[in-house]
Amino acid sequence: MSKRYGHFDDAAREYVITDPATPWPWINYLGCEDFFSLVSNTAGGYCFCRDAKFRRILRYRYNGVPMDAGGRYFYLREEDGTVWNPGWKPCKTTLDAYECRHGMGYTRIRGERQGLQAEVLFFVPPGRRCEIHKLTLTNKGNAARDFRLFSFVEWCLWNAATDMENFQRNLSTGEVEIEGSTLYHKTEYRERRDHYAFYGVNAAVDGFDTDRESFLGLYNGFDAPQNVLAGQAGNSVAHGWSPVASHFFRIHLAPGERRTLIFVLGYVENPADHKFAPDGSIDKTRAHGLLADFDSEAKVDAAFSELKRRWNSLLDRFQVESGCAELDRMVDIWNQYQCMVTFNMSRSASFFESGIGRGMGFRDSNQDLVGFVHLIPERARQRILDIAATQFADGSCYHQYQPLTRQGNDGIGSGFGDDPLWLLFGTVAYLKETGDFGILDEPVPFDNAPGTEVPLLEHLRVSFRHVAQHLGPHGLPLIGRADWNDCLNLNCFSHDPDESFQTTENKTGDSQAESLMIAGLFVYTGREYASLLRHLKLDAGPVLQAVAAMEQAIRTSGWDGEWFLRAYDYQGGKVGSHENAEGQIFIESQGWCTMARIGAEDGLCDRALDSAKRLLDSDYGLVLNQPAYTCYHPELGEISSYPEGYKENAGIFCHNNPWIIIGEALAGRTDDAWEHYCKISPAFVDDQQLHKVEPYVYCQMVAGKDAFRPGEGKNSWLTGTAAWNWHTVTEFLLGIRPCFDGLRIEPHLPARFRTVKVHRVFRDAVYDLTLHLDGQGGSTFIPYSPGHHTLEIVL
Ligand code: BGC
Ligand code: NOJ
Q: Which contacts (CB < 8 Å, 24+ apart) does range 96-100 have?
């Protein structure tokens, strides 16, 4: 067995890291409302309020050398000059003990050296705009201990992009204020900003630093701050350059003594008329309030208990006891948790995404919905309305929008053929979960233009119509810039490395580029849309006709003999056909066409699934396409830009494996469905070194069988994979599927699952289900009714 870096503690709902030198930083997220933090297992990372680009609080250098430099550091300097950190980094002094526990919205890091223990609990209190760093120092030895303690954070000057693009300005704008033990960062406050940050502590300090060069020394790294080495703070006041915040304490601990310090890293927005105090300094009233709310251990512990209580009550909405520990911990804890994180972050800020590039994806955010709608239906409601408001009147949509402004992103624009259908997908999922049909009457504008409001239902209508009216020569949907596969750019034909594959269409006009993935998605979501219309007692006839026509088009022009084609290119040539030299078969169309059960009665689904298993499967999951492209194809775009086995060129997308799993489940091929699920589910990961990224959350992509190192994960955390696996495991494997008026129970689990208990909150009802499975399959329907229902179901 390969080296392990940690283990699950299911009872505590934590992942415990026992070796700090993980193969990649293994991170966690703090915060759930609008103040968010990324924290690695060595205390690296940063925080921001609402928007990782425009309201960045701590500075961070992504992808730096060494990896993961910068964060919230505590330095302990011993009498003999040794300097160490409880999280090992940045000094990397050998510790006698180290443990990092990533929990639900908190991280606890504990380091110990020669009997001195330092433990930091990091969390964002519910509803508050601050990080708490509760530092507990314990002398476990028999002799008194004298040492010096330094805290350290580095401020980002708010706009995280300017840090890279226009730092000449930043080197002159930095400003701080110091008041007792609180170090304020107020860059640009003199002009248009009404916000500031601060780092305070609930004890009198023996010194401080606010200027980075004075603290570190210009030529020193975080691992060797000159003031820490010297054991003395500089009391520096930053004027421009790089403002930081560091507190300094001389500490004496008697044998057995324990001392707790509470640091508050806060963010405040002031009303315009309360910006300044009479002396011209910043109005600190709100900061004082925040500091006072967390100035004692008792207050902090109460806030922490409240955080735990909130998470427990959220996760308790869906709990399973299946007899399979891996399945249970994904469902009960980590898959739900990751879905909440993708709700909060979309694809913006991770250790693979800078937080300054992408906003909220139209497609991504709709898919994410199916992962969190059962947890926070009210926020899912608002999310749907926000997303729909970025749609254009003709049904097309901005591909992305910015969370701060909720406006569509002009830089990316529109033109992705699949986008409109995801609004149908997300909204139907919301309706099934909540029964809140009133949302369909909500007035929602087009492109956020006042006066253009129409009921949300009309947005669904134009979404469907848009795709139905943009068909190519085979009656299949035109792909536009790309479909779900951002890298299948069939109208791009780029020869200029400075062009974006996603936003460039060098050929348009008479494009014949059609997508079988969108075709399958159209049939699947079209049927859902039709059943919604019927439920509303509206005419579903035209929708069903368009769906039937699409099914026919797929059967006529989308079947390659043993599997579904992937696309037709600009010239009408086949993509994903046995006639191609490379890229003969793709996962997306096998997934969506088998989910839509196209040609099932003639064996098409079984054959497509067999082909996927035979040609795409590997030890680590199903790869996206085979054979991988070995050279650049301008007519296919970015997909062929990746080396074989990586990303969209035959990587294992943990996001689209679930489509095959659902297809397998619906085809009654339960063992295959389960086998595919286990390969991509992180709880089953055996080789942590190879997998590289966090073993408790999904990553977007695992290197495929053609790659140099098959099985190596990348792009953890922010991926539609979380929602799709949640949807798949709960609705298709466990088979607890919300419908407009109840729950359909239709498990697809291998024969060894005999008794499965599910606790499921559904609307204002609670269902405690015990499923007795005989391995033969079966289905039953439980009509929704409020109250607590305890049911034994034999299937
Ligand atoms: C691709 C990237 C692309 C991105 C856009 C990713 O999956 O691999 O190259 O820029 O999607 O959304
Ligand atoms: C990541 C993007 O966020 C998502 O929208 C897309 O579907 C996948 N990449 C696949 O290309």
A: 98/18, 98/19, 98/20, 99/16, 99/17, 99/18, 100/6, 100/16, 100/17, 100/20, 100/26, 100/41, 100/42
